[in-house]
Design goal:
It is built from 7 helices and 3 strands; from the N terminus they run ααααβββααα. With 128 residues, it is mainly alpha-helical. The chain has a 3-stranded antiparallel β-sheet with strand order 1-2-3. The protein is rod-shaped, with a radius of gyration of 31 Å.
């Protein structure tokens, strides 16, 4: 990604970029001419343009963008801030449900079924 591309994504003029980043005209021209722009400057311009930065492979947000109060996934799904905040309680709820299902399965193995077993001895056949 070049400086000029990032500036266009941010929809900013050269003058607006110089003012916002507090850089001189010679610095701006050097960025455009050499293509050697600090990554933080490119990421800043991309975020102004509504694109999420790419921090690392583990937290890769490439393809994600935001606008009109929503966060958009690369697949086009849109999320609100409430959706993102609700993830932690939802994960906790899923974990509790999984634990309760696991305990129900253990109980069902230990408890006899509704089928009455045929007695194998006379002692077992004597039911009060």
């Amino acid at each position: 990604m070049t400086f000029t591309d990032a500036r266009h994504i941010a929809r900013m003029t050269r003058l607006e970029v110089m003012d916002y980043l507090q850089i001189s005209k010679s610095t701006l021209l050097r960025y455009e001419k050499t293509g050697r722009t600090p990554k933080a400057v490119i990421e800043c311009l991309l975020m102004i343009g509504g694109q999420c930065p790419t921090f690392s492979m583990r937290n890769d947000f490439s393809g994600w963008h935001f606008g009109s109060g929503f966060l958009y996934s690369p697949e086009g799904d849109r999320f609100t801030s409430g959706d993102v905040r609700s993830l932690k309680p939802l994960r906790h709820l899923v974990k509790e449900l999984e634990l309760s299902q696991a305990s129900k399965k253990q109980v069902s193995k230990e408890t006899p079924s509704n089928v009455i077993q045929f007695p194998f001895s006379r002692e077992a056949a004597k039911i009060a």
